[in-house]
Specification:
265 residues, 2 domains, five-stranded mixed sheet, alpha/beta, D-Maltodextrin-Binding Protein, domain 2, 22% strand, globular
């Protein structure tokens, strides 16, 4: 008897359409699902504790072997809303210390790339749990992602959306996370059909919004708009080129050791 595919992903709202089918839809029962924040998903995959995971895209360059699932992602063409750099009173150009959300890998690398490549200076970095008040007590800025990145009161704060900054500087879309599969699990992954799972989840956005409305303190209309307008679940040409440029800049600034070619299941 074939064992269920071991699959890890966060349950942030931005991941919900990609996992809905496995938890509630046509593919329910086909995976052994493990909930984890994005950084932990990458660790589970690297340690072979799962066969596939929704990983921060930078981790594709750090985890040996493996392949991505083509055209399925968590990305954004403009404002992502849930990946933000926050400051109490310091302008972007003058930020000297930044607390990074420990849940993040792609965004933590992206904010470093933005400072080094486009702002020509680098703050001092620390890694913290995603508590904005505590992060800003000792730092000029704080990077915060996922649902916590959407729900803090923004009055009196300076907030920069990282997908918007990336588009301003490059003119390209950005991919934050993709499914990655271990080499020994390709056949099982193909049988799961992640693209079909995505399509079913996207078709059930209203059900997803209904299930999250009591978990995230935002209006239902805002949750719906976030999934339909801020987050993109397909990789188009702009996002593909953005991903490649991101990898090249991460390598240029010594944030990854090499740029391995994109390989797909």
């Amino acid at each position: 008897m074939t064992t269920p595919f071991r699959l890890a992903a966060s349950t942030y709202l931005n991941s919900a359409p990609l996992i809905w089918s496995f938890l509630n839809g046509a593919k329910r029962g086909q995976v052994d699902f493990i909930e984890a924040v994005p950084a932990r998903c990458a660790e589970l995959l690297a340690q072979a504790e799962v066969e596939g995971a929704l990983v921060p895209v930078i981790e594709y360059q750090r985890i040996p072997g493996g392949a991505l699932v083509r055209d399925v992602c968590v990305g954004s063409q403009k404002e992502v809303l849930s990946v933000v750099l926050v400051s109490k009173d310091t302008e972007l150009e003058h930020i000297r210390t930044v607390a990074l959300d420990e849940s993040s890998r792609t965004s933590a690398t992206l904010v470093r790339v933005i400072f080094r490549e486009f702002l020509d200076h680098e703050p001092e970095w620390t890694v913290r749990t995603p508590n904005l008040k505590e992060m800003l007590e000792r730092n000029d800025g704080a990077l915060i992602i996922g649902d916590p990145g959407m729900t803090f009161p923004r009055a009196g704060l300076k907030v920069w959306d990282l997908a918007s900054l990336w588009r301003n500087y490059t003119g390209l879309g950005f991919v934050f996370a993709m499914w990655m599969v271990r080499d020994d699990a390709f056949e099982k992954a193909q049988a799961l059909d992640f693209a079909a799972a995505r399509d079913e989840g996207v078709a059930h956005v209203e059900d997803i919004v209904e299930s999250y409305k009591d978990k995230i303190p935002m209006q239902v209309s805002e949750l719906r708009r976030y999934l339909k307008e801020n987050i993109v679940f397909h990789v188009d040409d702009s996002m593909r080129r953005g991903l490649q440029l991101y990898y090249e800049l991460a390598f240029k600034h010594r944030l990854i050791e090499t740029v391995k070619p994109l390989r797909f299941v």
